[in-house]
Amino acid sequence: MLVSVLLAAATLRLCLLARVQPLCRNHTVRTGKVFHISQQIQGDQLYFSSTRAHLIKHPCKKNIALYLGRQIFFTRDNFKSSLLPLSIPASMKVGTPEVTSAHIADSVLLLVVNQKIYIYDYEANSWNASIGIEHPVSHVSGDNCCYSGHPFCVDISNSVFAYLHGDQISQTNVYFSDTQGYRFQKFAYERQAELVGSLGGIFYFHSLSQVGVLLIDQGKARFGYSEHPLNSSFGLPFDYNGTLDILITPGQKGILIFWFEKSLLVSRNSGQLVYPVHVKEGPNTLYSSISEANITIHSVAANQYELAVLTQENNLYYCSLGILSSSLIKFAGQNLWSQEAALMFTDVGRVEILTPLPDSVFPAFDFQKCPVNIQAVLMDPQLQVDVCKAELLQGEFDNKMYTIDMNSKLELTALMIPRPGMSLVPLVMVSNPHSLGLQAIIYEDGYTYDGNTKHRLNISLRQQHHWGRADPNFTSSIKRPTGSTITLDIANKEISCVDLKPLTALISVGCDQEKKIVIQKEAYDPNFQGQKASEDLVVDYQYQKLGCPHLVYYNTPWKPVVELWREGKFQEVIKAEFVLLEVHGLFTYTYSLTAQTALCRAQPQNWTTIMENPGNKGPFAWNRENYVSCHDPDNDAPLRWPNVPYQILGGPTANKVIFDQRNGIYVFYVSIVDPYYSYCHLETTFSVYVYGAFPLSIIPATVTIIPLMVAMLLSVWLAYAVPKLLHTEKGLRFKGFWIHPCRRCRKACACFRGRCRVHQGSPAWS
């Protein structure tokens, strides 16, 4: 009995200790103040315009962060040292040093100061003013891609918008930069003059491959989009109370967070559908919105998978950002809030409350940190959170980037293991279903050592166009490169599955950089217009680049065999349309087909029309982006010159190259122009040696052939006419006229022969 009482008392004491356990423990970061060396703030000290503190984390470089408050702090070590407030050099002459918006674009920090944009390159420790902005701006927006140096990823990090929040959308000036904000140009949004309302923001939603514009009108807001098929309508309207800050979560998943003191909204599809976040306080209390829960938001932080909210009521709220919606859960109260406090995630399941602390002696501020272990907090029995049903969710594609070129596909696999006696519902989703389609198959794949069933999930990804299941009004333009993310999550996953994060990969539906084309082995104009030059061109043959030339007999129509290779392996022989151009301007070749014999419906393009177009730069500008097939029913160019050579090879025609009577080396540039074969600009150069042509005569053929023909005809006529003429009276007289001279000639010849004989025999006489 005594033992039971003691055990009960111990258990009660442990429970009481667990309930009074603080949410987090404060500690202060104070560095560089051992020696009394006072650092001075240089230039104009910056400050944030909002009364609520903001904290921006670099999604790729985890130690880079920017704190925005009454002072602004920029850290490169995640606030692990004391810092001076950020200031801008006086030489920039910013006037009032008030910051209204900020963005970290790769390795530079963009700040909107006094309605102008300034760039701080923190690696070079240099400041610059942006170029190209001619009107006041208040905000910048952008994103960062953390996967690789792929051009698609680089473009994401380089893209920045600048705009004036609250300006009338029909007449506002929006600027876009693809140079991380160093240089801007005006951005023209289609049908902008027809739009009604004020501008709430403009963003590049790379997860959807769309530019989204937030329109605010009479307390309602909705998104408009730039590209087909979303440009024909708007997203669903939602309540817009106050001035909402918009947070694009990392990872290009299309998750947006909208928040104000009395409002918290979320969108999981780039603004097409925006809805309020529910709030859960205790096991039985659920509020439909922040305002209904009567709480006041002070700071918001989010990463790819989680959302945390700090309120002025000294409470911390948390929810997961999975595929399906979830509610904010209220954690136990603690004295956490202050006017300068801000939230940030340091890792998955790790959130930190940061507060700058001024120093009475030194100008550098210290930082108070209160780290919260989310997983440990969720173990509190008072929260009554269910245990995670899953033991493992694993896939090699997680946090990687892939490319799907046109007519290509991608196969991904994942492994899922539930807890004993539990069942899981996997859910696969793409952020851009207009471009990327999927098919998933799940099956049992054996057992673990402790008897749990292993489930294997095979995911097939292709362009939505090639699945053949979507309406053309739903799919995006197949000619335009796009992007999407794919996310695999568990639909019935509990909030306690903090460490079991969704699996995500970024998919570029565009050019596969590993592809290249190879040519299977088997007269000069400097302006490439088919006109003779005034002097010869001496060209060095680049053997290291071109290798041995291909042999081609001049009198045989010829077409190069173009092969597609990827990562050093042969893929296929390309049957798509392509074009050739001799790089040194030789035009001693033509084509076997004309526009008419190629069955063109419209006037075909050729190298002359391509080069004459001012929008095409350089002589080799014919590619998939400007090619228009003459067989396309939408091509309305009239067929005015049906007898011009048809200069496109491959595709539906049997067109070939015909060389003039000339032996020599040709160096050809070849470009795949079929826009439906690949998103890449597949091009290369190769050489051929044309042989078998006899040298051309110096004398024109007419000068020799005509006299020869006349002589032959005359000989035939004489052979017929002379014998017949000799039997006539005139012929007899003519014959008699020549007989007497011949007889005299014979006598003379005979006498001559006789004397020769005597003379030859005279030595015998001596």
Automatic annotation (TrEMBL):
It is a single-pass type I membrane protein. Keywords: Cell membrane, Cell projection, Cilium, Developmental protein, Differentiation, Disulfide bond, Flagellum, Glycoprotein, Membrane, Signal, Spermatogenesis, Transmembrane, Transmembrane helix. It is found in: Cell projection, Cilium, Flagellum membrane. Residues 43-370 form the CATSPERD beta-propeller domain. Residues 1-17 form the signal peptide. Residues 391-509 form the CATSPERD Ig-like domain. Auxiliary component of the CatSper complex, a complex involved in sperm cell hyperactivation. Sperm cell hyperactivation is needed for sperm motility which is essential late in the preparation of sperm for fertilization. Required for CATSPER1 stability before intraflagellar transport and/or incorporation of the CatSper complex channel into the flagellar membrane. This is Cation channel sperm-associated auxiliary subunit delta. The lineage of its organism: Eukaryota, Metazoa, Chordata, Craniata, Vertebrata.
